[in-house]
Specification:
This protein is mostly beta strands and 216 residues long. The protein has 2 helices and 13 strands. Strands 1, 2, 3, 4, 5, 6, 7, 8, 9, 10, 11, 12 and 13 form a 13-stranded antiparallel β-sheet that branches.
Length: 216
Amino acid sequence: MPFREVNSKMVEATISPGQKMFSQRGAMLAYRGDVTFTPNTAGGQGGVMSMIGRRVADEATPLMTVEGNGTVMFGHGGHHIQVVDLTGDTLYVEADRLLAFDGTLQQGTMFMGSQGGVMGMVRGQVTGQGLFTTTLKGHGAVAVMAHGGVIELPITPNRPVHVDPQAYVAHHGDVRNKLSTALGWRDMVGRGSGEAFQLELSGNGAVYVQASEEKL
């Protein structure tokens, strides 16, 4: 179910009979046709959705199930929106950055420590993301929110990407991440002082970086 980008802060989705999608509550701006919006509290796929949390499983992000026949326009908080098309791989993204996504995608959570061990857990605390992150896997589209616009940076086996953890939005593909200490890094580029961290992503995929260090 592709999204049509109306502008940098608004997308439109076509809803067809027999299909469904999920959106963050309060993200619907307008719609045409016979479309229904149902609060989702029990989980959409075997209860997994109710487990989408930031720090612990019971901190779920409120979602709506969207069904019917028509078109819906989505946006939230004036945030910039990036549409990610998945073709069988997995998107790793914070639940509160999800604007809307295809109901065909398999939803889950990942413990941050499983990528990068202890440093993966440290990354969760440094970025404010907590110890869990959300995964969406399969074929479909995802609309992700960010501050100040987003750039997609390809990750290849011979070209890892280093990202400011506060500017990290999401990544997909067969990608490994680790957090490394970079003493003086912020001093060198005029972004602060003292100890800083860099997030290194390697493998094969892409990472999405926002033009801001603000949290949603």
